[in-house]
Write a structure and sequence with these properties.
Layout lengths: L1 H45 L6 H10 L4 H11 L1 H5 L7 E4 L9 H11 L1 H4 L2 E3 L2 H7 L13 H8 L10 E3 L35 E4 H4 L18 H9 L3 E3 L2 H6 L8 E3 L4 E4 L2 E3 L19 H70 L3
Parallel strand pairs: 2-3, 5-6
Antiparallel strand pairs: 1-2, 4-5, 6-7, 7-8
Helix pairs in contact: 1-12, 2-3, 3-8
Organism: Citrus sinensis (Sweet orange)
Protein name: Protein DEFECTIVE IN MERISTEM SILENCING 3
Length: 367
């Protein structure tokens, strides 16, 4: 019976820990949203002009001899010609134009993290599209009159140097779950935890989940039904963590395995690889989304929700402590009863042996 009580207490503790963990994650998610609002608000006060889609397009067009510049000019200024090109139908766009960020400072940081070559990378749905962008003769030399090179020449923009092309169907998509009831289909990634079970101070989330994506690209960007978040942006950022300050990021170093950035300019490329020196202003950045436009109206309600959830978490923690105390008492009782039982068995065995010896003596004693 005591053993069954121990099992019940252990099950209750397991359940309470699971509930506390989920509630803690929910609180963190709400705090991240408020933190993003604060950051965006400060950023809004510091910048009178925000990066929008037109500005991003203009930045791409400034790279006149890049493949991204040629493709962008073709679609914006020669749209009639582009509509007749069959190979461009599987071109989704340029990396810089496929995501948006609510915080301009974060946009600048992530653009610097990726680098201008990746920001200007062309994103294709299929490998057939990749092959159509550039063709070769029998000696392996580029045929300048076909594909994207031919288009560039036809509009007076010959492509100079190499360029990156990302093929979605050849990327390995994220294999986990999505955040439940999230219209942006954010990835349900494991959050870093200190030995206490809490998230490290200043942790704001993962970069892959901070990108806002147009609804048309959230689903079925590939033939297999995957969206851009779990394919393109997961492969670009993987589990890149975002922290409020460089000090927070460095304190969490043992928990960082796939890189991190901080809002004050710190960058860890990967485990053991740090990017030092002054920040670089990359001239191609993600546009700014309007995701915080309705935040002030929800701000008070969100803060109230956080306080209520914190109260529930404190109640769960008290219940957990009580169950742990009951478990300890049950285990102490079990151990004491076990020792008593073992002693009883030992005494019973000794008494039985004495009885057997007495019986044997009586049997062989002459009368």
């Amino acid at each position: 019976m005591i053993g069954l009580k121990i099992k019940q207490h252990e099950d209750h503790i397991k359940l309470l820990k699971s509930q506390s963990l989920k509630l803690g994650d929910s609180i963190l998610d709400l705090q991240v949203n408020l933190g993003k609002y604060h950051s965006a608000k400060v950023d809004n006060e510091d910048h009178s002009n925000h990066q929008n889609e037109e500005e991003t397009t203009g930045q791409i067009l400034q790279h006149e001899k890049s493949a991204a510049g040629v493709l962008c000019q073709l679609k914006t200024r020669h749209c009639t010609q582009a509509s007749h090109l069959t190979f461009t139908k599987d071109v989704l766009g340029i990396v810089a134009s496929l995501g948006q960020l609510e915080d301009e400072n974060l946009s600048s940081l992530l653009s610097e993290y990726l680098g201008v070559d990746t920001m200007l990378a062309i994103v294709c749905k299929t490998f057939e599209c990749v092959k159509a962008l550039e063709t070769y003769d029998k000696e392996g030399r580029i045929i300048k009159s076909s594909g994207l090179h031919g288009l560039g020449a036809s509009i007076g923009r010959a492509i100079d140097g190499r360029f990156l092309v990302i093929c979605l169907e050849n990327l390995r998509p994220f294999a986990g779950e999505f955040v439940v009831d999230d219209p942006q289909r954010r990835l349900d990634l494991w959050k870093p935890r200190l030995p206490t079970g809490e998230c490290p101070p200043g942790f704001l989330g993962y970069a892959v989940n901070m990108i806002n994506i147009d609804s048309k690209n959230l689903f079925c960007a590939t033939a297999s039904g995957h969206g851009l978040r779990e394919t393109l942006f997961y492969n670009l950022f993987y589990r890149l963590q975002v922290y409020r300050t460089r000090a927070d990021m460095l304190l969490a170093l043992p928990l960082i395995s796939d890189g991190a950035i901080s809002l004050d300019g710190g960058i860890i490329r990967s485990s053991g690889i740090f990017s030092l020196g002054s920040r670089q202003d990359v001239d191609v950045r993600f546009p700014k989304s309007s995701g915080t436009s309705d935040m002030p109206a929800k701000y008070a309600a969100t803060e109230k929700q956080i306080q209520e959830m914190k109260f529930r978490l404190e109640t769960l923690q008290e219940d957990l402590k009580r169950e742990q105390a009951l478990l300890k008492n049950a285990k102490d009782t079990f151990e004491r009863k076990k020792q008593e039982f073992v002693k009883f068995l030992a005494d019973s065995s000794s008494f039985a042996i004495q009885c057997q010896m007495q019986a044997a003596r009586e049997k062989f004693t002459p009368r």
